[in-house]
Amino acid sequence: MSTAIYREPTPEEVELAHQRRILASIRAVLAKRELELEHLRDQIISFETRYIRQVGVLYRQLDEWEERIAELKVSQETPEERERYAREAAQQPEPVLSDEPVPERSLDLRNLFREVAKLIHPDFAIDDHDERHRTRLMAQANEAYRRDDAAVLQRMLNGYDPSTDSWNANDMASALARTLAQIEQSNEDVEILAAEIEALGQSEMAQLKERTVQEALKGRDLLAELAAMVKGNIGMAMRRYELDLGRARRKEKAFNPNPLLSAEAPLPSRR
After folding, report:
1. How close are the terminal C-alpha atoms of the chain, in Å?
2. Which of 139, 153, 155, 196 has minimal CB crowding within 10 Å?
3. What is the DSSP letter of 3?
4. Which residues contact residue 182 at a Cβ distance below 8 angstroms, ignoring those fewer than 6 apart?
5. pLDDT tens digits, residue range 174-230?
6. Inside any domain, residue 84
7. How far, CA to CA in Å, does 113 sit from each of 78, 144, 189, 256?
8. How many domains does the chain have?
9. How far is CA 127 from CA 119, 159, 247, 270, in A?
């Protein structure tokens, strides 16, 4: 027969355990959302790479021909036209520049990473289990820093408190308050991630990716069709440039008086 004495947990301890279970559940949702966002981001990056390879390079060629056409047009402008364009440009309102300094994002990211490292670095572990746990967290922090993902680092800073590893039972109120604050922050992080996922899913590249997938199910290669369309536009731009260049050359020849003047000049008299 066991002589161990069972101690009934206090209401505060029961509440703390309950809130910690809630926190663990929210963090599980948060981790799932982070994986969902990372997966969606990887899919869009992969599709964007394919889009650039098939279509984007063609758009760059089209832009180059459009720039040549614009430069040729500018070179043929008369002084009166240039003066008129300058007056119109001077009448345009100037952009309003903000006096607020531009934040140094890279510096902020480094500082945030350092703060996270101070909390979770394995050198501060109290036992082998804690060291393994901190090593895993440190790997996640390094990966977030590599991706310039300040949001993940901020969530780690808000959601992990090493002091809870060596929790003092006499500080029950403080532990409960800390857990409630972490729950609130984790809920906000879940909402932020949900908004990021929705915004990324509604982005132009994500919409084009979805259309490409849907059209592929119908037997159409949407990117190939886009590439063919841009190639056609490049051909038209090249033809337009050739026509504009020909007109410019004919205009120069027609208005060049030197050959006519030299032909009509009287011959010098012989003496």
Report:
1. 149
2. 139
3. -
4. 23, 158, 159, 161
5. 778 888 988 998 899 999 999 999 999 999 999 999 999 999 999 999 999 999 999
6. no
7. 59, 9, 18, 69
8. 1
9. 15, 21, 83, 116
